[in-house]
Amino acid sequence: MRILSLAGVAAAALLLAGCGDNIGEQALFGGAAGVGVAAVAGGDPVAGGLVGAGGNVAFCQLNPGACRR
């Protein structure tokens, strides 16, 4: 059940996060979205922040055209 919750937090964080202009901003925006989603979902904010930051950086680096700059 915990893995399912973490997957949900990761998916929501990716949907909510904006890309940012550089890797630092991407990590910050994704991490903030992950913490917010984890707090609302009753999950671990640290894990949510890490998943959100990593997920947003990975998405933005792999899909640079998907972000408005």
Automatic annotation (TrEMBL):
Keywords: Signal. It comes from the Bacteria. Residues 1-17 form the signal peptide. This is Lipoprotein. It comes from Rhodobaculum claviforme.
